[in-house]
C-alpha cells in the first residue's frame, strides 16, 4: 500500500501527524486528520487528503510504498450486516449511531489497514511485520478484553458468553465506526462465540462557551480544571448528564452550570431532601425522632393517593428511559419526581410550624 512519508522528519507519518483538506464533496474542512474528518465524520486514509501537510514540520509529505496487514471487511459484510440489523433494534442503538453506521455500509466496505510504520505502539507478533505496530483503533478495542483478562483469569465468562452478558458502550460520535463496524468485524472474523456489543449510546459534540473544546489550545474545562474549582464531583456529574448532547450538539457555559446548580440541584432536589430529612430528624413533639412512622390511612388521603399514582407513572418512565440508555431523559424524570415531592409538601401544608400537625393528620 501507499503511505505518506515526511522526508524532513525522515519517517512515515502517523494518521494524526497529517492534516489536509477533506476530499468529501461539500465538507470544506481544511483541517481533516489522516484517519478521519471531524467535521463530516468520514474515515479516511492519509493519502486521500487534499494538500496534506506534516503537522510536525509543515512540509508536504511524499508517497511511498510499504507492506501492511489489512482487515478484509468486504468478506465479512454478510455477517456484519446481520449483526447490525438485529442488534441495532434489540439494543435500541441511538439514532446517530445507526445513521453513521448505515452511511458506512452504503459507501461499501473496503479492506482496512490495521498496521502502521511507527516506533511506538503494540508490536505486530509476526516476523515479517516485526518493525510495525497495530493501528490504534484496531488495537484499542481489543484492550477492553485484555484488561478484563488482566483482572481475572475467568475473563471468558464476560467476553465469550453472549447468552448471559450484555455489553453497553458509551462514546462520542467520531468513534462510532470503530465500534459498530471494525471491532465487531474483527471478532466475527475469528468465528468464535464472542460477546458482541448490544447497546451503543452516542453523543454529539459538547461545545465550550462560544467555541469547541481543545486541550491543545487550552480552550475548555478538563479534569484538572474541574478539580481545581473545588465544585463537588456530584455537581459536575449532574450538570454534564443534564446537558448531555444525546440528539444534537450542546454548549457548556459557566452561567448555565451555576443556574442548574442553584435552581435544580439546590432549589428542587436539595430543598426536597432537606425538608423531609430535617423534619423526620426533629425530636418527638416537633418531628419523629428519626423514626419514620407507619401511615395506615395514607390511601384515603387524596393528595397522597394522587402523589403515589403520579410518582408510580414517573418511575415506570424512568426505568424505560434507563433501559434504553436515555440518560438525560432519565435524569429529567428523576428530577420531576423531586418536584412532585416538593409540590406535595407545599399543598399539604408541610411548612414551618404546621408540618407536624399536617403529618399527624395525614398519617393518623
TrEMBL record:
Its EC number is 6.1.1.10. One of its GO terms (molecular function) is ATP binding. It catalyses: tRNA(Met) + L-methionine + ATP = L-methionyl-tRNA(Met) + AMP + diphosphate. One of its GO terms (biological process) is methionyl-tRNA aminoacylation. This is methionine--tRNA ligase. Keywords: Aminoacyl-tRNA synthetase, ATP-binding, Ligase, Nucleotide-binding, Protein biosynthesis. It comes from the Eukaryota. Residues 1-277 form the Methionyl/Leucyl tRNA synthetase domain. Belongs to the class-I aminoacyl-tRNA synthetase family. It is an enzyme of class 6 (ligase). It holds the Pfam family tRNA-synt_1g. It comes from Brachypodium distachyon.
Amino acid at each position: 500500500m501507499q503511505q505518506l512519508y515526511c522526508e524532513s522528519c525522515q519517517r512515515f507519518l502517523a494518521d494524526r501527524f497529517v492534516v489536509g483538506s477533506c476530499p468529501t464533496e461539500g465538507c470544506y474542512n481544511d483541517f481533516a486528520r489522516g484517519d478521519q474528518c471531524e467535521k463530516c465524520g468520514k474515515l479516511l486514509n492519509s493519502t486521500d487528503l487534499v494538500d496534506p501537510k506534516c503537522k510536525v514540520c509543515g512540509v508536504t509529505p511524499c508517497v511511498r510504498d510499504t507492506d501492511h496487514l489489512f482487515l478484509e471487511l468486504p468478506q465479512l459484510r454478510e455477517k456484519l450486516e446481520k449483526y447490525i440489523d438485529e442488534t441495532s433494534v434489540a439494543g435500541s442503538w441511538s439514532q446517530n449511531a445507526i445513521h453513521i453506521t448505515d452511511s458506512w455500509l452504503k459507501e461499501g466496505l473496503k479492506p482496512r489497514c490495521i498496521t502502521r510504520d511507527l516506533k511506538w505502539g503494540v508490536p505486530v507478533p509476526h516476523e515479517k511485520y516485526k518493525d510495525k505496530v497495530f493501528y490504534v483503533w484496531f488495537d484499542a478495542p481489543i484492550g477492553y478484553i485484555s484488561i478484563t483478562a488482566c483482572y481475572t483469569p475467568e475473563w471468558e465468562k464476560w467476553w465469550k458468553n453472549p447468552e448471559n452478558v450484555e455489553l453497553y458502550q458509551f462514546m462520542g460520535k467520531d468513534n462510532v465506526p470503530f465500534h459498530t463496524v471494525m471491532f465487531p468485524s474483527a471478532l466475527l472474523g475469528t468465528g468464535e462465540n464472542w460477546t458482541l456489543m448490544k447497546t451503543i449510546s452516542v453523543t454529539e459534540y459538547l461545545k465550550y462557551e462560544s467555541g469547541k473544546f481543545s486541550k491543545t489550545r487550552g480552550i475548555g474545562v478538563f479534569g484538572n480544571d474541574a478539580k481545581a474549582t473545588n465544585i463537588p464531583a456530584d455537581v459536575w456529574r449532574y450538570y454534564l448528564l443534564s446537558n448531555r448532547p444525546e440528539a444534537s450538539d450542546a454548549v457548556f457555559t459557566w452561567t448555565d452550570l451555576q443556574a442548574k446548580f442553584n435552581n435544580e440541584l439546590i432549589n428542587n432536589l436539595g430543598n426536597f431532601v432537606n425538608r423531609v430529612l430535617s423534619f423526620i430528624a426533629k425530636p418527638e413533639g416537633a418531628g419523629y425522632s428519626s423514626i419514620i412512622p407507619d401511615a395506615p390511612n395514607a390511601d384515603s388521603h387524596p393528595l397522597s393517593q394522587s402523589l403515589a399514582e403520579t410518582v408510580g407513572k414517573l418511575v415506570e418512565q424512568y426505568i424505560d428511559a434507563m433501559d434504553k440508555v436515555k440518560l438525560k431523559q432519565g435524569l429529567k424524570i428523576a428530577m420531576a419526581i423531586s418536584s412532585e415531592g416538593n409540590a406535595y409538601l407545599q399543598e399539604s401544608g408541610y411548612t414551618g410550624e404546621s408540618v407536624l400537625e399536617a403529618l399527624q393528620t395525614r398519617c393518623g
